[in-house]
Design brief:
7 strands; 57% helix; Rossmann fold; 439 residues; single chain; alpha/beta
Amino acid sequence: MKLNLGCGGVYKKDYLNVDAFDSAVADRIMSAIDINLKDNSVEEIEASQLIEHLGFVSSLYALSECFRVLKPNGKLIIETPDINSSFEKYLLGDYKCRKNIISWIYGVDTPGMLHRFCFPDELLEETCKKIGFIEIKKEFIELDKYQPILRIICTKPTKYHSAQFITVYRKKLLQNKLINLKNQILSLEQESLIDFFSSKMSQLYENKDSSTLNEITIFGAVCSPKMTHIFLKTLIDKNVSNKKKIKCYLASIELLVSIDFPNILCSCLRVIPDMVGEQKLLFQTIVDMGKATAKNILNENNKSSSFEILSKTRNKVKQCDSIDFFSEKMLRCKANSFFQHGTKAFTLQRYDEAIDMFKFSISYYRNQILSYWNLGRLFALTNDLQQSKKYYDYALNILIRIDCKSNVDIKNKIENELNGRKVKKPKNPIISLNSIIES
């Protein structure tokens, strides 16, 4: 079988023509990120002018699906806009050239026709290697002077089992709705855990001892017990490593899933006092604590007592501690959300609410200088000069750690505000350091 993936209006004889939107010539309606075909069942896949419509993370899943369904030595042929040549032509061309090539870069505002992400050739080559493809060849084609094309031809290797496992795992993550492809920040953080799992697959297939399985389970439990749970189940389904040992680990992970372990870690991080400017140390402290707890849960002797302690801790978790993936970036996103609410409340002169929001912001991310600075302003406005000085001092403390050319100017502005609080009190929030530097 040969597959014409994302066929649009182009019908190819002797191919299964599939498309997610256009049913004009398609034999079947099918998404590129969820190919409804068996593993190792396709000899060749052509994906012409497809991946630029998917977005970066969705393209990873589409390429993963292509790898999964291809037979060993099967070929994947990708054609996509040559974005490097397109931009070069745009920058050097006249008005007519720019007008014609802009739609080649961005696509057309019609369902399924917008371009969400165009791959530079180096990145597409790197991504194909990451999925598991070999013998990657690049061609640069210009059938139309306004439509330069990048063609990639790559092969599924005969030794494919480790990479194939990850493609099956990706599919199960999507089926269980653990990956939200519309949230690229979250899905890229989840991708880091998939990369970690992938790096351990060859060791798992060797099955010499349980140390690798132990490492995977403990690290995965901290980041995402739900993703780790699916990973362990996939190991059992594909008969990888020691099935009896995996089932024991699976039972422990199910306990951590049941109590929303990342939320507990998030709550523990939030309630630790002080540590101004020490976000990396704070995060690593919680990660180490999480690993130690997961290790105790994995240990049959300590499972009951550890789980009982965690269950009690769970009762102290607030709704705001909910987190889909425990990582520094996701904590920073959570802090930024509270920061934005804080600036709105500050602007509307709801000072008590603003103070609460900025305090939540710094509880999740201790390096956010603007939250400390805004708290300094807010406490000055509410005439709590002692608290105001404390938060201005915190902002100065963090500034020392920031690599910024304008540190001296920012330091002077903070100190001027601190020293002039009794006379002139700033009545607006600071949204960004740029706004301060430019003022």
